[in-house]
From TrEMBL:
Record keywords: Membrane, Transmembrane, Transmembrane helix
The organism of origin for this protein: Nocardiopsis terrae
Top-rank taxon, per record: Bacteria
Protein name: Lysylphosphatidylglycerol synthetase-like protein (DUF2156 family)
Transmembrane segments: 12-32, 39-59, 71-91, 147-166, 172-192, 224-242, 254-273, 300-318, 330-352, 364-386, 426-446, 458-477, 489-508, 529-552
Parts forming coiled coils: none
Amino acid sequence: MRLLPGRFLARVTALPAIALSAWLLVAFLLLVLGQFTPLTGAALGLPAVVAACALLPRLVPDPPVDEDVPWWPVIAVLAVTAGFAAVQIAFHAEALVIRRDPASYAMYTSWIAENGYLPIPQQRELIAGDDPGLSYQSLAHYERDNVIWPQFMAGAPLVLAVGYWLGGLDGMLVTAPVLGALGVLTFAGLTARLVGARWAPLAALVLAVCLPQQWVSRFTYSEPLAQVLLLGGLVLAFDALARRRNLTDRWQSPQTLAAVAGVVFGLGVLVRIDAIRDLLPVVGFVGILLVARRGQALPLLAGLCAGLAYGLVAGYGYSYPYLEYLSDSLNPLLLISAGVVFATVVLTAALWRYGLPHTERVRWLPNAMALFTLLVMVGFAVRPLLWPDYGHGSDFTDQWVAYVQGVEGLPIEGSRTYYDMSLYWVGWYVGLGTVLFASLGVALVLRRLTLRRDPYWLLPAMLLVWTVGTTLLRPAITPDHPWASRRLIVLVIPAFILFAVWFLAWLTRYCERAVDAARGGPLARSLPAVLAAGAAVSLLVPAAVTSAWGIMGYRQDVGTVAQTERLCESLPARASVIVVDSGMAGGYMPLLRNVCGVPTAALDDPTPESVERVVSAVHERGRDAVLAAPEWDLLAELTGPPVEPERHFHVVAEMDPSTLMEPPTGHWTFNGSVWTAVLPAPECPPTASCPDPVTSTS
């Protein structure tokens, strides 16, 4: 079969979602069984990925015959993807000390990659038993009964673990930039399908240069993987619906692609629990397909349920303390989801006999839909002037926001959420021109859908408009930047870029038709090309300027990997580590336990008496007691001579700044130290049970 550019672009942009979904389907089952190891991953996961990548892309339909795709867009898309990956790998962060989510995901990954199971044992029996002064909970690690559950969903760690197996900590950290590059590639594929292959390089480049895409791809965040799955679900759903199949038709490739699209969508919940909100429009779309008697409806629904099952098992089986923490927002979301399912069932039954309403027959409705869309965007624009938002519901968040306000010279209002600024956040990162073009684009797309034109836009418009609207209304995140840009990068910023590029493509074609109708001369005929070039510049320049003047010119937490390895090597083979500083315990306990593989606990109220008690209990177990603190003075005070504390971890590096009313620029400084004092166990007494030396908890 001849390798055509359009066919190649369609298939290669579907591959990331297919490959990652195949891996997640197998890897999560291995984790459930407690057998998530390099051997089982290679024996079961790798064949699944190879089979999926070999068979499923063959089902992707070719572009329409009237779309003559040249090779240059394909080469440009691949060049943008490769360039993005290279730059992000070169600038990847080394976040291992937990301050915010990246290191939390890294510690989760390190544990399952080394041990292959959850939950994490507390190993009280190797420290001081049930001593009431010890605690085992830390940042992003919840203590329940006699085990520890890591925070967050399992999806991203299951993928990052592949990099850990191949290259240790460094391999894990550079896997994140690769996922970010796959997100750019997948987005290019969606643009090629919805707008045209010639516009895909522009869309991919705008996404690649915008600061949030670069930023999340340098850290071990879950957003890049979620982006690949949700955008990839739209790509595969488009391909599945490209050919009409009726409910009674026999199973063929469109039904298979629909089922795969459903699985890919559903697995988004395995990566991020809030993907449940993003997927609600897919439920409604299944109802529309059923009313339209489309054969892809039931396969899409079955695949969606299968993927959701993985996510719900992961959430309630392996991240339940995290879901408890989110209960104030998660429980209402689950109720809304149940309402959406119920309403879809009722409306599908009501419309089954009569079919979908003919909205195109209501003459005023298409224009009203477009006008309403523009008014909503105007509402978001004037929201800061009319409805400033307050109320985090968290004293800690109030204090942090107040601190950042002080740094930025703003009035101190700790309860200010800045959610009313959400549309301007998008403008910071992709430019106000993109926001304007996207607003016009979505208004025109919804108008055409109301006229029952361009049906291939229905699912993307439903999902993207819903997600943009709900996210801008309530981002539900601490509002300092670049941190808050995480909420935008999975679907919101891609949606703005996609609709803006679609509008520019529509405007260019409109000018071409106008010039042809007017039979203009050479100068007039060059107008569409000039318009397209100018529009491309208007999209690219603001995004590139924000990134170049922002925080993209340095690596963050550099040196942490080397210092972590140095710290781990310094610990005795039979070490049991006691962290004697509450401020340090939250960020460093997972590093000691999950990476160094030593039993670790925190002493809540360290005094010479409590330290002596715990150390004696450790020694009774034939273990070497190791005290850890961020300062030499604290250890010297608690131990005294002849013990001499040593510093085996010391990092001074650049880290993210935090801003509230302007795009992030410059950097702050991360200064991390770990001092340790080793108190070796005396020779094993005859009555003691002295375990063999261990270097890992696996």
